[in-house]
Design brief:
Elements lengths: L3 H12 L8 E9 L5 E9 L5 H16 L6 E6 L10 H6 L4 E6 L4 E9 L3 E6 L12 E4 L3 E6 L5
Parallel strand pairs: 2-3
Antiparallel strand pairs: 1-2, 4-5, 4-8, 5-6, 6-7
């Protein structure tokens, strides 16, 4: 195994039985292969969030199996994505319903608002903007295929 893609595919296979019947899901796997010191970063999450001890348990279970496919020296990091990590899957969007998100569309336009719902093909946002006194609130539907990047906006109010 010497390409990032091959290693990533093998790690995904090794992770599958450790994800507790789909209660955890893979957000991202980053692999940096090097002759000196390689690094594998696995970001996991669940609909309720993932705890450090759950990441540690998966890391320990995975560790001995990864030893067989990795070069001599490597670092394995299993953690949850940070709050600033882009939303990449329908499941990540669902987890953040009710929160304020920023969506950058492929055409470059940007929409900020409360994530109201997630469907198979699109998300619905109530845009954050000043409205006139009796102005109707019109939900904005954004197709997944039109989304370039989305992230949760963290508020410390």
């Amino acid at each position: 195994m010497n390409t990032n893609t091959e290693v990533k595919q093998k790690i995904e296979q090794l992770l599958e039985p450790l994800l507790e019947n789909d209660s955890f899901f893979v957000v991202d796997i980053k692999i940096s292969l090097s002759k000196v010191h390689s690094k594998v970063t696995i970001l996991l999450d669940s609909d309720e969030g993932i705890k450090i001890d759950e990441c540690t348990a998966i890391s320990r279970q995975l560790g001995t199996e990864i030893d067989e496919i990795m070069p001599e020296k490597y670092t394995l990091e299993v953690s949850s994505p940070g709050v600033d990590f882009p939303l990449k899957s329908e499941r990540m969007y669902r987890k953040n319903i009710g929160r304020t998100i920023k969506v950058i569309q492929k055409d470059g336009s940007e929409i900020k608002g409360s994530l109201e719902s997630v469907e198979a093909e699109h998300i619905t946002i109530i845009e954050d903007k000043k409205r006139k006194k009796n102005e109707e609130v019109i939900p904005v539907l954004i197709q997944f295929i039109n989304i370039k990047e989305s992230e949760v906006i963290v508020s410390f109010k």
